Amino acid sequence: MNSDPPSLPEGVAAPYDWALAQMRVPEAHRVTRGSPDVVVAVIDLGYRPHPDHRGRLWVNPRPEEGALHGWDFADNDATLEYRGPGEADSVYFRGHHAFIVGEVAAVTPACPIMILRVGYLPGQGESWPHAVDYAVRHGARVIVMPHGYIQGHCLSGTPYFYQGTDFGYPFDNPALKESCDAASAAGCLIVSGVSDNRGRRAVFASSAFESVMAVGSASRRGRAADIAPSSDYVEAAAPAGQRSPESPAEQIWGTGGDGRYIPFEGGCMAAGFAGGAAALVMSRYPGLDPSQVRQILRNTARGRGWNPYLGHGLLDAAAAVGLTSGQMEKRVAVRPAARLRQTSKGLRLALALENLSAFDIGRAVLALYAGDPTCPADAQASFTSPAELQVRQIEHTCCAIPGLEAVTATLPLPEEALSRPLYAQAFACDAGAPGDCCTVRIAIGGRTPGAAKSLIAGRGRAVAGNPAGGPAPAPEITEQAHSLLTEREL
Ligand SMILES: [Ca+2]
Fold it and tell me: What structural domains and CATH numbers belong to the chain?
């Protein structure tokens, strides 16, 4: 093997450099570098150590048969490196596992990394669920499983893919699905690269499991990498790199299995970085379940809407660990400025409803009132002498709002309601939501069509619009939430 000292090509300043910058890992490290309590397991094809990994690996408190940092489920022994065809000269077999471990170590230096080996040869199908089970049993909170399981021919072991059949057997390995489901239920998040399910290839098992977070592949420029697969289930994207003969820095350079730095590109790389980001989130906010971690990662990702290559956008580790306490509770706010439209069915009022939290809200209630709903009409009223209703609820609706986003709700507005000040109230109904109610006075503005405008003018008294004048002003929106909302508003 090459015994040259570790080297990086021109344009690469440090291992994993552009990838860490794209995910804003240095900024995230000002908040957290991970926690020793959050163990990350990397399940791959065979690990060889690299000097950069010293002190970063998980240490089994009760080593079985000398296995200090994990277990080899392909050969069922304690040695973790790949031994077999192609061993001497395959960068893949010698360096891939070490490369992913290096990614996790770079993103989340304080989280211990567990090494688990699996294989594709006949008889090694069980190595995959066994590795997942081991990770959970030994306390891993994140599992990076860059590859999906590829079924091989029962005699030759050659994956069907290489024999002319697309790899796409949703039930290739039912035991692996059971293990992934159990891992998720136990509070462990599994991260995998995306497999293509929109073009030639069918969905292939593990990355499409609901229990697995599927990560898309980004180029150095933050776009879909040329190797990026598309899918209907990709959640967010992480650096994957791509090959360019003129510019080696388009790939990602990181730790190889022979003590050197080597280049790689592919969806596997995205999985490793995303797993590191997940571990940072778990370290920063202990007690979250895997679903909540996924929501934070995808809702703080940088992107406009969703697309089948990058999902909700590029993972942003700094945004994910930089949430305020207010953004960790499900709260909604109504924007005071609303738009009125004249339709064939009458007036329609469009209101923007914001989810101030990083978590998805499944059900938010929005109610519209003629008059101030926080003021009783008549304090002297009683059962025997009820007051006439002064404040009426005009209409209400329910909607779902993704974390840190806003949706527009449109409500019918009777003309007579324009003679009173309009108020809106909103709150989140999800289990665990604090139950705060946002009340604002509505100001009708924007491009009001002529008919509606004359209607308002004719009524004379419609809403002068001092939203801050309401008795219960909207919760303050932090600058970060604002920028995210502006960027990602539907
Ligand atoms: Ca071994």
Answer: 17-322 (3.40.50.200), 328-488 (2.60.40.2550)
* Cα 302 to ligand 1 centre (Å): 41
Quote the Cα angle for 272-59-129, to 5°. Answer: 55
H helices within 110-265, ranges in order? 127-137, 174-185, 205-208
**CB 442: neighbour CB atoms within 10 A?**
24
Q: Select the more confidently predicted residue: 113 or 157.
A: 113
Instruction: Please tell me the distance between residue 74's alpha carbon and the centre of ligand 1 in angstroms.
Output: 7
Q: Ligand 1 mean position to 184 CA, how many Å?
A: 27
In the block, residue with structure tokens 């891993």: 140
pTM value? 0.87
Rounded to whole angstroms, what are the CA distances from 437 to 370, 372, 463? Answer: 17, 14, 22
Q: Which residues are CB-neighbours of 464 under 8 A, at least 6 positions away?
A: 443
Task: Please write the tens of the pLDDT for every residue from 313-358.
Answer: 999 999 999 999 999 999 999 999 999 989 999 999 999 999 999 9
Distance from the alpha carbon of residue 117 to the mean position of ligand 1, in angstroms: 8
Question: Between the CA atoms of 77, 78, 81 and 86, what dihedral angle is there, to the nearest 10 degrees?
Answer: -20
How close is the Cα of 79 to the center of ligand 1, in Å? Answer: 4
**DSSP for residue 376:** -
Distance CA 336, CA 359 (A): 23
CA of 46 to the centre of ligand 1 (A): 8
Q: Are 119 and 173 in contact (CB under 8 A)?
A: no
Question: What pLDDT score does 280 carry?
Answer: 98
Q: 47 alpha carbon to ligand 1 midpoint, in Å?
A: 9
Residue-wise DSSP of 314-359: B--HHHHH---GGGGS--EEE-SEEEEEEETTEEEEEEEEEE-SSS
Q: What are the phi and psi torsion angles at 357 (to 5°)? A: -100, 165
